[in-house]
User: What shape does this take?
Amino acid sequence: MAAIDEVNDFLKAANIYYLATTDGDQPRVRAFGTVDKFEDKLYVQTGKVKDVYKQIMANPRVELCALAPDGGSWLRVACTLVDDPRVEASKHMLDAYPALRRMYDENDGNTTVLYMKDATATFSSFTAEPRTVTF
Assistant: This one.
């Protein structure tokens, strides 16, 4: 299985992951629930009016962490998030998460999707050595 697919599958199974950004010299962490593979890239989604988007634009280097549903393993991904302004990319995300359409639309000027670039993903557990993949 390709690294990107393994990370995508883990994040989807976890359902919630935590995205860390920086706000000046202060770390900020918040829960996210969106991940979408589009054109062989992994994307996250947010709104341009949110602080998280402003923080990513100021410093696109982020890290995310997810715990497997069984609680026995976790995933950390360090990457650079790149804003993709294309309507097609936002539409693909919103089609994958139709509940988001109550708050977002690919043509609303607020919805944005960002893809993971130069990603290093580390799979960890209490029972095995960490394993690192890149994509």
